[in-house]
Amino acid sequence: MGLREWFKREWHVVEGHAKWDFYKWVFGLAGASVLALGAYLVHKLKYGPDWLPYAVVFVLALFILFWAGNRMTPISPPSKVTQSTKEPAAIAPVEVEAKDDVRANPNDPDLRAKIEEVLFFLKRETITNDVFVLMRVSIVNHGESEAVVTKWELSLEVGGVRIKFDEQYIPAEWKIRRFHQVPRGVVVTDDIDRDTSSFKEPLRKGVPKERWVCFCHCFMDRILPPHNARIILTLTDAFGRTHVTEAGPGFTHDLGEIVKDIELPRSPVSSPALAESVIEKVEKVGKLRSLAGRADFLRDYLEEVWHLFLKEKKTMPNPIGVRSMPDKIEEWTDIQLWRFRLRFQDYTGGVKEVDPECKSDLVKDGFPHEGEDYLSVERKIKEHADTLRKRADGLLAEAKKEYAVGTR
Q1: What H or E segment, with its residue span, contains residue 174?
Q2: Distance between CA 337 and CA 199 in Å, rounded?
Q3: Angle (nearest 5°) at CA 154 between 153 and 157
Q4: Most CB atoms within 10 A, among 17, 58, 243, 396?
Q5: Cα(216)–Cα(107) distance, rounded to whole angstroms?
Q6: DSSP-based three-state secondary structure for 177
Q7: Closest CA to 117 of 216, 252, 8
Q8: What is the mean pLDDT for each group of 10 consecutive residues in the chain (408 residues)?
Q9: Sheet holding 257-260, edge to edge
């Protein structure tokens, strides 16, 4: 510690005492001066009464004391804290701007969904397990403005863990098998209404609409469908507003099950005697159309991955190349590309199993394949889906013709 700092610290300690000593010496010197002046005046006055010098000294001392008291600020005693009885002034509330999801304006679209029916379907793949959620949803717009639903999102929550499901096409071969309790034992197979054209038109106030919508999530573990999960359905309208509907968790009523079933119109006479070849062709038609739908989904998934790379200002490598993936997959874009490769490899293996005669470029080149890019792979998937649909239409025409000949 320097000498300067020591003096500064000591001054802060003795500052109050030094002021008191200063005032004390000032008053002492003033009093001594008054007495000396009084003695001087006594010696100067030769004539006068004896009490006059004392009166002069008293008046001068009294004047100096009053003058000094008025010039100096008296030391006030410590103030006591008193509680004010005055009411505090009211604070004006802060105006908060209404957000989009808070519909302060009754004219805004207000889409309220009701989940009428939920069915689960588990599909075991070579590597993954696909869990499908098929829902029948009715929607009513409670707002004045019309709106169109542009995006459907589903999340299932189990034990505090929330899993997001992606919207998926409804496979062509799916039907719903229902077990009626009255009369007991009656089994009915219902078709699924896949028509969504009504939702292309705006939802008007008070006019309900209903549709089937399917979601899917790919699990790497072997799990069972979460029937008792908490359901969070989110709708996004054309204005960008979100409308959330929640249901569960709770017990799930058994309203039926999803089955794969394709049947031709039954003839009362000859349907039991349908040739085995006709049945095989019809079954294959359903499988080919399902594969074509999966190819469409695969192409859309690849496009989403490409947009992710574009958003991150990266160049997407060959989606199906051997050396396309890094040794350590950490980036979000690389994870999504790796998931596409898993789906692509699983899909091409399924096509070869179902339709070994398929000669599309996608199947002939196989996986992996070098010298590709995003556009070439996207084009091959689209051409492959068109090829499958043409083969399915040809097989169905042959089956109809054979069926017609057998029923004559």
Answers
A1: strand 174-180
A2: 32
A3: 145
A4: 243
A5: 34
A6: strand
A7: 252
A8: 65 63 72 71 64 72 68 47 41 39 69 90 81 92 90 90 90 84 67 84 90 90 83 90 87 76 47 64 86 89 89 86 80 87 86 84 82 87 90 86 65
A9: 186-190, 174-180, 257-260
Q: From CA 224, how far away is CA 220, in angstroms rounded? A: 12
| Pairing between β-strand 209-219 and β-strand 129-141 as defined by DSSP bridges | antiparallel
What's the pLDDT score for residue 90? 39
| Residue 359 φ/ψ, nearest 5 degrees | -120, 25
- Give the C-alpha distances (Å, rounded to integers) separating 76 from 47, 79, 273: 47, 8, 117
**246 Cβ contact list (under 8 Å, min separation 6):** 230, 231, 232, 233
**Number of neighbours of residue 301 by Cβ within 10 angstroms:** 17
Name the one residue in this structure whose structure tokens are 């993954």. Answer: 128
d(CA 108, CA 239) in angstroms, rounded, equals 10
Q: How many CA atoms lie within 13 A of 117 on its CB side?
A: 16
Angle 137-139-144 from CA coordinates, rounded to 5°: 170
How far is Cα 183 from Cα 271, in angstroms, rounded to an integer? Answer: 26
List the structure tokens of 38. Answer: 């009084």
User: Which one, of 383, 293, 396, lies nearest residue 347 by Cα?
Assistant: 293
- Give the DSSP letter string of 71-140: HSPPPPPPPPP----SPPPPPPPPP-PPPSSS--STTS--EEEEEEEEEEEEEE-SS-EEEEEEEEEEEE
**Residue 278 structure tokens:** 């006709």
Which H or E run includes 35? helix 3-44
Q: How far is CA 332 from CA 215, 308, 339, 341, 395, in A?
A: 22, 9, 11, 14, 42
Question: Closest Cα to residue 295, out of 351, 341, 335?
Answer: 351
Give the integer Cα–Cα distance in Å for 130 and 218.
5
Question: How long, in residues, is the chain?
Answer: 408
Structure tokens at 273: 């005697």
The rounded distance, in Å, linking the Cα atoms of 377 and 383 is 10
In terms of Cα–Cα distance, which of 127, 133, 113, 126 is closest to 226? 133
pTM: 0.41
CB 211 within 8 A of CB 137: yes
Contact call for residues 165 and 155 (beta carbons, < 8 A): yes
Q: Are 128 and 342 in contact (CB under 8 A)?
A: yes
Q: Can you tell me the distance from the alpha carbon of 247 to that of 229, in angstroms, rounded to the nearest whole number?
A: 9
Residue with tokens 């690389």: 334
